[in-house]
């Protein structure tokens, strides 16, 4: 039996209004140039969070970031790969922005990152974060909690995750929540053996199948 994957450190960066603005302008330009009524979005890792930010529009919690009106009516399919929608267990502590209570990491910011904390009284031990627990309410960082209020970022959402992801963690849990599952997901795709990065590159055929499905069939398939 192979040894369980070791969880690696998160990105040294945190979510910023500057990056969100740049990405939103790109999406707006695509819509304007093509004249398309709707587009599809495929996002990976932190890009999943950025995609949700630009879809939902103006987000005051992120330095009063003015991105424009929501794009929800213009997003047909959204494929979210290896996202951390409820936080990362490598960011689980009582203070935020730390790893093992020692090193400050911007990506684990309580405000603008992937911090997750033990809000349920019975889960005070941060080592329980990745266990298969009943979900705790309101235990994500500020920006993630805001994004998770929405369940309609797109008409059809597919979420991909892997048991061999050393960034997200093999259980994909964050105090009970399956962290790679975007709120409102219609299709969950679980893989074994793919890393955080090959989950993006080695699932192209599955991504294409989802993009090629007619929306009416997709919704019926999940009912």
Brief description of this entry?
InterPro entries: AB_hydrolase_fold (IPR029058), Lipase_EstA/Esterase_EstB (IPR002918). It holds the Pfam family Lipase_2. This protein has helices at residues 17-34, 46-56, 142-147, 198-201, 204-212, 215-222, and strands at 39-44, 75-81, 98-99, 103-104, 156-162, 173-174, 177-178, 187-191.
Blueprint of the fold:
Blueprint: H1 17-34, E1 39-44, H2 46-56, E2 75-81, E3 98-99, E4 103-104, H3 142-147, E5 156-162, E6 173-174, E7 177-178, E8 187-191, H4 198-201, H5 204-212, H6 215-222
Parallel strand pairs: 1-2, 2-5, 5-8
Antiparallel strand pairs: 3-4, 6-7
Helix pairs in contact: 1-2
What does this structure look like?
This protein is of the alpha/beta class and 223 residues long. It has one domain: Rossmann fold. Helices cover 25% and strands 15% of the residues. It has a four-stranded parallel sheet, with helices on both faces. The chain has a two-stranded antiparallel sheet with strand order 3-4. Helix 1 crosses helix 2. The longest helix has 18 residues. The N and C termini lie far apart (37 Å).
What is the terminal separation in angstroms?
A: 37 Å
Q: Determine Rg (CA atoms, Å).
A: 17 Å
CATH class: Alpha Beta
The largest beta-sheet arranges its strands as 1-2-5-8
Q: Give the overall silhouette.
A: globular
What do we call the CATH topology? Rossmann fold
Proportion of residues in helical segments: 25-40%
Question: What's the structural domain tally?
Answer: 1
- For the secondary structure, the number of strands is 8
GO biological process, one term: lipid catabolic process
GO molecular function: lipase activity
InterPro entries: AB_hydrolase_fold, Lipase_EstA/Esterase_EstB
Protein name: Lipase
């Amino acid at each position: 039996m192979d040894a369980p994957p070791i969880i690696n450190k998160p990105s040294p960066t945190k979510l910023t209004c500057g990056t969100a603005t740049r990405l939103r302008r790109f999406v707006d330009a695509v819509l304007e140039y093509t004249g398309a009524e709707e587009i599809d979005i495929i996002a990976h890792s932190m890009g999943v969070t950025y995609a949700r930010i630009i879809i939902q529009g103006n987000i005051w919690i992120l330095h009063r970031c003015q991105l424009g009106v929501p794009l929800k009516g213009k997003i047909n399919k959204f494929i979210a790969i290896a996202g951390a929608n409820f936080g990362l267990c490598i960011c689980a502590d009582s203070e935020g922005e730390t790893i093992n209570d020692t090193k400050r990491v911007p990506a684990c910011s309580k405000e603008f990152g992937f911090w997750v904390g033990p809000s349920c009284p019975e889960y005070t031990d941060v080592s329980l974060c990745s266990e298969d627990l009943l979900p705790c309410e309101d235990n994500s960082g500020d920006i993630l909690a805001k994004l998770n209020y929405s369940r309609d970022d797109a008409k059809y959402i597919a979420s991909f995750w892997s048991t061999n992801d050393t960034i997200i963690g093999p259980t994909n849990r964050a105090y009970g929540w399956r962290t790679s599952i975007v709120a409102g997901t219609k299709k969950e795709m679980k893989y074994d053996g793919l890393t955080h990065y090959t989950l993006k590159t080695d699932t192209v055929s599955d991504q294409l199948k989802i993009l090629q499905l007619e929306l009416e069939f997709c919704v019926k398939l999940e009912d």
